[in-house]
């Protein structure tokens, strides 16, 4: 799996970024995802994540992670447009490899690591896996969904060695 990363804060070391990529590789294997899948992670501060949270979720407050799942089935082409022999299915196959993007607040990760009494690395890993599961269709709106998602999340983090 390919993970593109952008650190707008300058606070996430290359080593930590590499660890997150490996962790998400473990998560992708657990979900039996194709190695062709791609995603993006952008590390931001509380101010930026609040803007993103307001724009995408209509919530005017900073949060720890915003997950934007990519759903290729929601894209359609106007059948009246002549692509002059262009095969749109080829483009859709390429889009199909992109699963989504995460925005992680480094500020919130620091705050929550302290609040929960574990390392910053563990919190960053938790947020990455949590967001990753969201962009792969998992949620926690009901008790059943929460049990499944949080159980899987803990299983992945423990398998990688990021225990509480």
UniProtKB/TrEMBL annotation:
Tell me which cofactor or cofactors this protein depends on. Zn(2+)
Cited PROSITE patterns = UPF0054
UniProt source species: Floricoccus tropicus
Cofactor: binding details = Binds 1 zinc ion.
InterPro entries listed in its UniProt record: MetalPrtase_cat_dom_sf_prd, YbeY, YbeY_CS
Which branch of life, at top level?
A: Bacteria
Name-wise, this protein is Endoribonuclease YbeY
List GO molecular-function terms, semicolon-separated.
metalloendopeptidase activity; RNA endonuclease activity; zinc ion binding
Alphabetized, the UniProt keywords read: Cytoplasm, Endonuclease, Hydrolase, Metal-binding, Nuclease, Ribosome biogenesis, rRNA processing, Zinc
As for family, the record states: Belongs to the endoribonuclease YbeY family.
Q: Which gene encodes it?
A: ybeY
Which Gene Ontology terms of cellular component type are present?
cytoplasm
| Cited PANTHER family | ENDORIBONUCLEASE YBEY, CHLOROPLASTIC
Q: Which residues participate in Zn(2+) binding?
A: 130, 134, 140
Q: Where's it found, cell-wise?
A: Cytoplasm
The protein's Enzyme Commission number: 3.1.-.-
Keyword NAD recorded: no
Gene Ontology terms describing biological process: rRNA processing
């Amino acid at each position: 799996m390919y993970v593109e990363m952008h650190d707008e804060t300058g606070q996430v070391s290359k080593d930590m970024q590499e660890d997150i990529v490996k962790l998400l590789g473990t998560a992708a294997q657990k979900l039996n995802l194709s190695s062709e899948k791609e995603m993006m992670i952008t590390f931001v501060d509380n101010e930026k994540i609040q803007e993103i949270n307001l724009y995408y979720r209509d919530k005017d407050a900073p949060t720890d992670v915003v997950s934007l799942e990519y759903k290729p089935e929601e894209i359609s082409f106007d059948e009246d447009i002549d692509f002059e022999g262009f095969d749109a299915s080829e483009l859709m196959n390429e889009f199909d490899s992109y699963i989504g993007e995460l925005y992680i607040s480094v500020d919130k990760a620091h705050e929550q690591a302290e609040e929960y009494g574990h390392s910053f690395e563990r919190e960053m890993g938790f947020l990455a896996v949590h967001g990753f599961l969201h962009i792969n269709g998992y949620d926690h709106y009901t008790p059943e969904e929460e049990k499944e998602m949080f159980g899987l999340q803990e299983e992945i983090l423990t398998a990688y060695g990021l225990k509480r």
